[in-house]
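Work through this protein:
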Amino acid sequence: MLSQSHLAFLARRRVGHLATADREGVPHLVPVCFAADDETIYTPIDEKPKSGRALRRLTNIRNNPRVAFLVDRYEEDWSRLGWLRIDGSAELLSEGPEFEKAVRLLVARYPQYGAMRLSPVIAIRIGGAHSWGNLDS
């Protein structure tokens, strides 16, 4: 479960970074759009152009659901640096009430998604949260 400070920090960030690993533990890191509640981070697969092959993050999650998700803030004033890392387990959603809730949260946060098909949505079940630095403002 995330603290109010963590949720507020997430709400102010527009881009996160999702880390997955394959069966052999080879990491794969991608920037993602996301929405959060206090127990789950949601990130969609949308209709923007992709490489044309199976997305590695989806293959990795199917084979190894353990993931990490990072949001950070960098500023030249180093008293304002901060980051939040969430460790958890990922699940792919493509239908049902939770999928519909995730899509609503994502469209509310990123209006561009209102005109796109989002599927699947990656649900990151929060196992732990670690932060550093200034998470305020």
Q: What stands out?
A: The helical segments are 4-12, 56-63, 97-109.
